[in-house]
Amino acid sequence: MKKLKIGITCYPTVGGSGVIATELGKLLAEKGHEIHFITSSMPFRLNRMVPNIFFHQVEVNSYSVFQYAPYDIALASKMAEVIQKENLDILHVHYAIPHAVCAVLARDMAGQNVGIVTTLHGTDISVLGYDSSLSGAIRYGIEKSDMVTTVSESLKHETIRLIQPAQDIETIYNFVDEREYFPNKSSELKAYFNIQEDEKVVIHVSNFRKVKHVEDVVSSFAYIRNKMPAKLLLVGDGPEMNNIVKQVASLGLDEDVLFLGKQNNVSELYSISDLKLLLSEKESFGLVLLEAMACGVPCIGTDIGGIPEVIEHGLNGYIAPLHDVESVACYALKLLTNPDIHNRMREAALESVSRKFHSSLIVSQYEELYDKVINQH
Ligand code: GMT
């Protein structure tokens, strides 16, 4: 395939969409494409030197004439500048609002026929899509893009139902870099956390937003802990943290729940875990599930959004109804007390990651998409 010049815009701070955008950029750069990140700060996963990657910072100045700092206009201006200066073939933006709309404006400002690819990650549809003051702009961003992708079939159907765009949408799943996420057992880490050999380890990783229902994770764990020795690792931080700390104390679980805060090397934490719980109310895909599965950890998730496209019930984990903490605990106990089932699901989890979500497969799907866009122009 011809080597392309690709601009990427995403939210550069912590979050699944920023992770996917940055990891995609890194892997495309390794394949010889020239990648230009156009973001408000350095994407947090751009943590190692990769040749072919360039960073263009969007500066948003605040003037007293503005009630709100004009991020969107500053972004569009920077995109237009990079399109012209670098002669970009493709501008791949993550999120319809504001990024797709900014890309359309930038293409117009630059007067160059750059291809626009928009990836929808969830919140832009599952939250903003319900806001009638924004849905018109979301539809505009989608329809003016040359190609639009969603990270699950579920999000694709939700987008069609809510936004009804006159535009085809392709599903391209999330992926992980297998060089970072693999079974990497460290007995020292267990000892460091004072986890005993007979204790099973349950893990939850999120940004502790309300939609993640971390309280259901703790309630399910209380059932599990009642029946067997176990520890719960809570990784991440966010608005619900105080409530969760109180819940853990009120259930008398302080000794068995470890609050680890935000962590960089989660693959090592997954590798000492026996089970992952993700009991969200909204989840377009659930990248953290894939990260866990790539480290050989079976998962239990809710019957919501894209989660059932990642967890195949009874094969590589279990699916339970939202808020049904008893069912979650039942499945968890079945898995944690039966080594045969656990081994089978662990192998199936690893197999799913390499069959359905392998980075080389997903990156090729994006390359094919870019190729189609360029041939359309
Ligand atoms: O889950 C979050 O709160 C972060 C959010 C984001 O915007 O980064 O994640 C979304 O995008 C990820 C990457 O595609 C998906 O794996 C997450 O499921 C999705 N989150 C939601 O839909 C709530």
UniProtKB/TrEMBL annotation:
Domain Glycosyl transferase family: from-to ranges: 189-349
Name of a matching Pfam family: Glycos_transf_1
Domain Glycosyltransferase subfamily 4-like N-terminal: 14-178
PANTHER family assigned to the protein according to its UniProt record, in alphabetical order: SULFOQUINOVOSYL TRANSFERASE SQD2
Official protein name in the record: N-acetyl-alpha-D-glucosaminyl L-malate synthase BshA
Organism the protein comes from: Paenisporosarcina macmurdoensis
Taxonomic lineage: Bacteria, Bacillati, Bacillota, Bacilli, Bacillales
